[in-house]
Amino acid sequence: MSADETGGKGDRTRARIRTAALSSFRTHGYEATTIRRIADELEMSVGATHYHFPSKNHLIQELYRDVQEAHRDAAVPLLAAEPRLIERLRIVFSTGVDQLGPYHPHAGEFLSAAVSPRSPINPLSEESAASFAIIEDLFREAVDGAVGARLADDIRRLLPRALVLVHLLLALYWVYDTSKEQRRTRRLLDRGLALLGSALPLTRLPLLRTPLAEALALVADVRR
To answer: Residue 156 in contact with residue 144, Cβ under 8 Å?
Structure first.
Protein backbone atom coordinates (compact mmCIF):
# COMPACT_ATOMS: atom_id res chain seq x y z
CA MET A 1 0.00 0.00 0.00
CA SER A 2 1.38 3.42 -0.96
CA ALA A 3 2.05 6.24 1.50
CA ASP A 4 -0.73 8.26 -0.12
CA GLU A 5 -3.22 5.46 0.40
CA THR A 6 -2.11 5.00 3.99
CA GLY A 7 -2.38 8.73 4.64
CA GLY A 8 -5.78 8.90 3.01
CA LYS A 9 -7.13 6.04 5.10
CA GLY A 10 -5.66 7.61 8.23
CA ASP A 11 -7.27 10.93 7.45
CA ARG A 12 -10.63 9.26 6.92
CA THR A 13 -10.33 7.36 10.19
CA ARG A 14 -9.38 10.52 12.04
CA ALA A 15 -12.37 12.34 10.53
CA ARG A 16 -14.72 9.51 11.60
CA ILE A 17 -13.43 9.67 15.16
CA ARG A 18 -13.74 13.45 15.23
CA THR A 19 -17.31 13.38 13.89
CA ALA A 20 -18.38 10.71 16.39
CA ALA A 21 -16.79 12.62 19.28
CA LEU A 22 -18.42 15.94 18.40
CA SER A 23 -21.80 14.23 18.13
CA SER A 24 -21.28 12.51 21.48
CA PHE A 25 -20.27 15.76 23.20
CA ARG A 26 -23.50 17.39 21.97
CA THR A 27 -25.71 14.45 22.90
CA HIS A 28 -24.12 12.94 25.99
CA GLY A 29 -21.92 15.73 27.37
CA TYR A 30 -18.34 15.85 28.53
CA GLU A 31 -18.34 13.21 31.25
CA ALA A 32 -20.11 10.46 29.31
CA THR A 33 -17.99 10.94 26.19
CA THR A 34 -14.93 8.73 26.51
CA ILE A 35 -12.36 7.34 24.12
CA ARG A 36 -13.74 3.85 24.81
CA ARG A 37 -17.30 4.94 24.05
CA ILE A 38 -16.22 6.40 20.72
CA ALA A 39 -14.12 3.33 19.88
CA ASP A 40 -17.05 1.03 20.64
CA GLU A 41 -19.42 3.14 18.55
CA LEU A 42 -17.05 2.99 15.58
CA GLU A 43 -16.16 -0.67 16.20
CA MET A 44 -12.52 0.25 16.56
CA SER A 45 -9.93 -0.62 19.16
CA VAL A 46 -9.19 1.90 21.90
CA GLY A 47 -5.55 1.83 20.80
CA ALA A 48 -6.47 2.85 17.25
CA THR A 49 -8.58 5.70 18.58
CA HIS A 50 -5.75 6.81 20.88
CA TYR A 51 -3.38 6.80 17.91
CA HIS A 52 -5.31 9.68 16.34
CA PHE A 53 -6.41 11.42 19.55
CA PRO A 54 -4.23 10.56 22.55
CA SER A 55 -6.75 11.88 25.09
CA LYS A 56 -10.22 13.30 25.48
CA ASN A 57 -8.63 16.73 25.86
CA HIS A 58 -7.45 16.51 22.26
CA LEU A 59 -11.03 15.86 21.21
CA ILE A 60 -12.22 18.84 23.24
CA GLN A 61 -9.85 21.03 21.25
CA GLU A 62 -11.49 19.68 18.09
CA LEU A 63 -14.84 20.65 19.59
CA TYR A 64 -13.61 24.17 20.36
CA ARG A 65 -12.33 24.54 16.83
CA ASP A 66 -15.56 23.19 15.33
CA VAL A 67 -17.69 25.62 17.36
CA GLN A 68 -15.51 28.60 16.50
CA GLU A 69 -15.34 27.74 12.81
CA ALA A 70 -19.14 27.51 12.77
CA HIS A 71 -19.20 30.84 14.61
CA ARG A 72 -17.03 32.40 11.93
CA ASP A 73 -19.13 30.92 9.11
CA ALA A 74 -22.30 32.32 10.68
CA ALA A 75 -20.91 35.77 11.45
CA VAL A 76 -18.91 36.69 8.34
CA PRO A 77 -21.85 36.93 5.85
CA LEU A 78 -23.81 39.05 8.33
CA LEU A 79 -20.85 41.36 8.92
CA ALA A 80 -20.58 41.93 5.17
CA ALA A 81 -24.05 43.52 5.16
CA GLU A 82 -23.75 45.63 8.34
CA PRO A 83 -21.59 48.80 8.52
CA ARG A 84 -22.40 50.02 12.05
CA LEU A 85 -19.90 49.15 14.75
CA ILE A 86 -22.26 48.24 17.59
CA GLU A 87 -24.42 46.13 15.30
CA ARG A 88 -21.32 44.40 13.96
CA LEU A 89 -20.30 43.57 17.51
CA ARG A 90 -23.83 42.32 18.20
CA ILE A 91 -23.46 39.95 15.25
CA VAL A 92 -20.23 38.47 16.57
CA PHE A 93 -21.50 38.09 20.12
CA SER A 94 -24.92 36.72 19.20
CA THR A 95 -23.73 34.24 16.57
CA GLY A 96 -21.20 32.99 19.11
CA VAL A 97 -23.94 32.35 21.66
CA ASP A 98 -26.02 30.68 18.95
CA GLN A 99 -23.28 28.11 18.32
CA LEU A 100 -23.15 27.23 22.01
CA GLY A 101 -26.87 26.45 22.16
CA PRO A 102 -26.77 22.67 21.59
CA TYR A 103 -24.28 22.25 24.43
CA HIS A 104 -26.24 24.06 27.13
CA PRO A 105 -27.69 20.93 28.79
CA HIS A 106 -24.14 19.75 29.53
CA ALA A 107 -22.40 23.13 29.77
CA GLY A 108 -21.66 22.75 33.47
CA GLU A 109 -19.63 19.60 32.81
CA PHE A 110 -17.44 21.37 30.26
CA LEU A 111 -16.99 24.32 32.62
CA SER A 112 -15.95 22.06 35.50
CA ALA A 113 -13.36 20.37 33.30
CA ALA A 114 -11.98 23.64 31.94
CA VAL A 115 -11.97 25.88 35.01
CA SER A 116 -8.55 24.93 36.34
CA PRO A 117 -5.75 27.27 35.17
CA ARG A 118 -3.64 24.16 34.50
CA SER A 119 -6.31 22.47 32.41
CA PRO A 120 -5.30 22.11 28.74
CA ILE A 121 -8.92 22.76 27.80
CA ASN A 122 -8.99 26.10 29.62
CA PRO A 123 -10.01 28.58 26.89
CA LEU A 124 -6.99 30.73 27.80
CA SER A 125 -4.51 27.84 27.57
CA GLU A 126 -1.89 27.53 24.86
CA GLU A 127 -3.68 24.43 23.60
CA SER A 128 -6.78 26.57 22.96
CA ALA A 129 -4.87 29.33 21.16
CA ALA A 130 -6.11 28.45 17.66
CA SER A 131 -9.77 28.65 18.72
CA PHE A 132 -9.11 31.85 20.68
CA ALA A 133 -7.53 33.37 17.55
CA ILE A 134 -10.65 32.71 15.46
CA ILE A 135 -12.79 34.74 17.88
CA GLU A 136 -10.24 37.52 18.13
CA ASP A 137 -10.04 37.75 14.33
CA LEU A 138 -13.83 38.02 14.15
CA PHE A 139 -13.87 40.91 16.60
CA ARG A 140 -11.00 42.57 14.76
CA GLU A 141 -12.94 42.27 11.52
CA ALA A 142 -16.03 43.72 13.21
CA VAL A 143 -14.06 46.71 14.52
CA ASP A 144 -11.88 47.38 11.48
CA GLY A 145 -14.72 47.02 8.98
CA ALA A 146 -17.11 49.41 10.72
CA VAL A 147 -18.06 52.56 8.84
CA GLY A 148 -18.10 55.87 10.69
CA ALA A 149 -16.57 54.50 13.89
CA ARG A 150 -14.09 57.20 14.81
CA LEU A 151 -11.80 55.26 17.12
CA ALA A 152 -8.28 56.29 18.03
CA ASP A 153 -5.66 53.94 16.60
CA ASP A 154 -4.61 52.57 19.97
CA ILE A 155 -8.21 51.90 20.99
CA ARG A 156 -8.93 50.20 17.66
CA ARG A 157 -5.87 47.99 18.04
CA LEU A 158 -6.58 46.91 21.61
CA LEU A 159 -10.35 46.59 21.53
CA PRO A 160 -10.67 43.18 19.79
CA ARG A 161 -8.64 41.33 22.44
CA ALA A 162 -10.73 42.91 25.21
CA LEU A 163 -13.93 41.95 23.41
CA VAL A 164 -12.83 38.29 23.26
CA LEU A 165 -12.56 38.25 27.03
CA VAL A 166 -15.98 39.90 27.31
CA HIS A 167 -17.25 37.13 25.03
CA LEU A 168 -15.81 34.50 27.40
CA LEU A 169 -17.49 36.19 30.37
CA LEU A 170 -20.78 36.26 28.46
CA ALA A 171 -20.38 32.54 27.76
CA LEU A 172 -19.77 31.95 31.47
CA TYR A 173 -23.00 33.81 32.29
CA TRP A 174 -24.76 31.73 29.61
CA VAL A 175 -23.68 28.50 31.35
CA TYR A 176 -25.61 29.55 34.47
CA ASP A 177 -28.56 31.06 32.61
CA THR A 178 -31.59 28.83 33.18
CA SER A 179 -34.07 31.15 31.50
CA LYS A 180 -35.91 29.88 28.44
CA GLU A 181 -33.51 29.83 25.47
CA GLN A 182 -31.09 31.76 27.71
CA ARG A 183 -32.98 35.00 27.15
CA ARG A 184 -31.32 36.67 30.12
CA THR A 185 -27.99 36.30 28.34
CA ARG A 186 -29.44 38.05 25.30
CA ARG A 187 -30.80 40.87 27.46
CA LEU A 188 -27.43 41.27 29.15
CA LEU A 189 -25.79 41.49 25.73
CA ASP A 190 -28.28 44.12 24.55
CA ARG A 191 -27.73 46.27 27.64
CA GLY A 192 -23.97 45.90 27.46
CA LEU A 193 -23.86 46.92 23.80
CA ALA A 194 -26.08 49.93 24.51
CA LEU A 195 -23.67 51.01 27.23
CA LEU A 196 -20.68 50.49 24.95
CA GLY A 197 -22.37 52.49 22.21
CA SER A 198 -22.75 55.39 24.63
CA ALA A 199 -19.20 55.12 25.95
CA LEU A 200 -17.17 54.73 22.75
CA PRO A 201 -17.65 58.33 21.53
CA LEU A 202 -16.09 59.49 24.79
CA THR A 203 -12.84 57.79 23.82
CA ARG A 204 -12.19 60.67 21.44
CA LEU A 205 -11.65 62.90 24.48
CA PRO A 206 -7.92 62.96 25.32
CA LEU A 207 -8.65 62.99 29.03
CA LEU A 208 -10.46 59.63 28.78
CA ARG A 209 -8.65 58.01 25.88
CA THR A 210 -5.35 57.47 27.67
CA PRO A 211 -6.72 55.69 30.76
CA LEU A 212 -9.05 53.60 28.58
CA ALA A 213 -6.16 52.56 26.33
CA GLU A 214 -4.17 51.59 29.41
CA ALA A 215 -7.12 49.55 30.70
CA LEU A 216 -7.47 47.76 27.37
CA ALA A 217 -3.74 47.04 27.33
CA LEU A 218 -4.08 45.54 30.80
CA VAL A 219 -6.92 43.31 29.61
CA ALA A 220 -4.85 42.26 26.59
CA ASP A 221 -2.13 41.02 28.94
CA VAL A 222 -4.55 38.45 30.41
CA ARG A 223 -3.58 36.16 27.55
CA ARG A 224 -0.10 36.45 26.10
So the answer is: yes
